[in-house]
Amino acid sequence: MKQGNAKDSAANVVPTTLEISSTTITQKAQPTSATVYPLVMAAPSWVYNFEFPLGHGNNVEPFNLLRTCFNCYFPINGATSTYPYVGQVLNLKILVAGAIEVPAPVKIGYAGDFYFQFTALAGHFDGEGSVINFASIPKPNGERALNVNAAIVIDRGVWNAGNQLAAHGQWYQFASNMCMGLWRTNASACNWPAFYPPY
Q: Which domains does the chain have, with CATH numbers?
């Protein structure tokens, strides 16, 4: 279960929970007595879910690496050197076509030993209230993987496929950077570059 936000018709934030699976997303609003109906932007338009291998070992180790230098591994401009904390705002900027900076401001919804969540703020190209979750998850045989799943508010129709492909490229790079950092510490921990050949 993830945390998200909806808005009421007066543009007040209404907390919600999101249950995300590979095929469905369920959002449950938690209105207050001050909520002005109807609720708007309650449900994200579309979702994606990616998983990238991070070699062998415990699933906390990759995020311990991020705590040594977050922006050394996280591939988006505007990331801080320190690991994100709950409530922190990051004024991220995505490079499009290698030169055009597109604003992607986010707030940290939660952060733990092996996970963190971004909630898109006003001005984010995915739409305010979009949610991206990152987690290092255990896999069979002592392996681990980076899971990235998102619930996107703005529906751009046929352009969603391009957005998803671009997101895959960014998070592929993130996983590759983490794997390389783990490999430098212990070459048997993450088979870099075999897991992440250049593309």
A: 1-41 (no CATH), 44-185 (3.30.530.20)
Tokens coding 1: 């279960």
Edge-to-edge strands, sheet with 39-40:
25-29, 13-20, 2-8, 39-40
Q: Is the dihedral of CA 151, 85, 168, 183 positive or negative?
A: negative
Rg (CA), the chain: 17
User: Which residues neighbour 131 within 8 Å (Cβ) at sequence distance 6 or greater?
Assistant: 2, 3, 4, 18, 44, 109, 117, 118, 119, 120, 150, 151
The pTM of the full predicted model, rounded to 2 decimals, is 0.78
Q: Report helix, strand or coil for 182.
A: helix
Residue type, 82: T
DSSP string over 117-152: EEEE-TT-TT-TT-EEEEEEEE-GGGEEEEEEEEEE
- pLDDT, tens digit, for every residue of 106-130? 999 888 899 999 999 999 999 998 9
In terms of Cβ atoms closer than 10 Å to its own Cβ (0-12, 13-18, 19+), residue 103 is middle
